[in-house]
Design goal:
Blueprint lengths: L2 H10 L2 H12 L5 E3 L8 E3 L9 E5 L6 E7 L2 E8 L2 H12 L4 H7 L3 E2 L2 H8 L1 H17 L5 H11 L2 H4 L2 E5 L2 E5 L8 E8 L2 E8 L2 E7 L2 H11 L17
Antiparallel strand pairs: 1-2, 2-3, 3-4, 4-5, 5-6, 7-8, 8-9, 9-10, 10-11
Helix pairs in contact: 1-2, 2-3, 5-6, 6-7, 7-9
């Protein structure tokens, strides 16, 4: 820990102690737990809100910066960085209390989130709907690639595909039965400028066939979509190929 950046943390005896002392000074109750194993020297701020994991707090090494990462299930829905321990304590208390992420952002400007991240916490159906909105906006913003836009709109009109979580890889549109990474892509379609659409078993592998139109590509994808695949579930399905 660099004493130039974190003299107060060192004086307190470490990050956990510094957070506890700051919380006491602000009269804000916090329950601290071990941080994430993959983030060295991190500390967690506990929550009893269903689905939420402890808010992870960790330090930057190049400048003074207290960073936070909050997950719902396996999806990061909020993150941020500040130089003030008080900001972290207030954000941690709001997280612990189950405060909706947009309201947290209203009072703690250093926090960052997007509509898709926030939707994840409301459930897989909301996450799927938000992701489709993003994808359709992306297609509308790419008028020079009409094949992509046509594919997105035709796929959206099909209920069995619309209930899955769509994601893109080099313009290929894949359809996942879970909303978190790593995705479980059940079928995929690759548009090509001025050329046939490619239907794939997975986002970047397993070519099934080439067909001339988006409508035929979607129909072929549906024909190869397992009957057992239903609405996308939260997080990762846990099934491996």
């Amino acid at each position: 820990m660099n004493s130039e950046f974190y003299a107060d943390v060192i004086e307190a005896g470490g990050l956990a102690n510094a957070l506890e002392q700051t919380a006491t000074g602000l009269d804000i109750p916090l329950v601290l737990v071990p941080g994430r194993k993959e983030i060295a020297d991190s500390v967690g701020i506990a929550t009893t809100t269903p689905g939420r994991q402890p808010l992870t707090v960790f330090l930057r090494t190049d400048i003074r910066g207290f960073q936070v990462s909050g997950r719902s299930g396996e999806v990061e829905i909020v993150r941020g960085e500040t130089g003030e321990l008080g900001d972290i304590v207030r954000a941690g208390a709001a997280w612990a209390a189950g405060t909706p992420v947009p309201l947290m952002r209203d009072t703690q400007a250093f926090l960052l989130f997007d509509e898709l991240a926030e939707a994840h916490e409301r459930g897989p159906e909301a996450a799927v709907a938000a992701r489709w909105d993003q994808l359709r906006e992306q297609a509308a913003g790419a008028p020079d690639f009409g094949e992509f836009g046509r594919l997105v709109e035709v796929a959206y009109e099909e209920p069995r595909l619309r209930q899955l979580f769509p994601f893109t890889s080099h313009w290929t549109v894949a359809f996942s039965s879970c909303t978190g990474r790593p995705y479980r892509d059940e079928i995929a379609i690759a548009p090509q400028p001025g050329r046939p659409y490619i239907v794939l078993q997975h986002a970047n592998a397993g070519m099934i066939a080439e067909v001339p139109t988006a409508e035929e590509a979607v129909a072929l994808a549906l024909a190869h979509l397992p009957e057992s695949v239903g609405p996308a579930v939260a997080g990762f399905t846990g099934r491996h190929r």
